[in-house]
Design goal:
This protein has no helices and six strands. Strands 1-3-5 form a three-stranded parallel sheet, with no helix packed on it. A three-stranded parallel sheet has the order 2-4-6, with no helix packed on it. By secondary structure, the chain is mainly β.
């Protein structure tokens, strides 16, 4: 499953722990100015550009991901 473009754009979301079933994050998915923490599961396959656009308060990210070049 993929979180779509601007899915959480301009929301009051402060933290999120993505479940293992989420394997993709599209552009601008988390354009939320209040987001401070996010946990991304190890099975993440695709993270597009500008996923965290406007997330100026994002201070903690937990990435259990090993990135590979496509």
């Amino acid at each position: 499953k993929t979180i779509g473009e601007e899915a959480f754009w301009n929301t009051a979301l402060k933290s999120i722990d993505l479940p293992e079933g989420v394997t993709g994050l599209l552009s601008g998915a988390f354009g939320c100015t209040q987001l401070t923490e996010i946990k991304i599961p190890a099975n993440m396959e695709n993270i597009y550009y500008s996923v965290f656009d406007s997330c100026s308060k994002l201070k903690k990210e937990s990435l259990a991901v090993t990135f590979r070049q496509a």
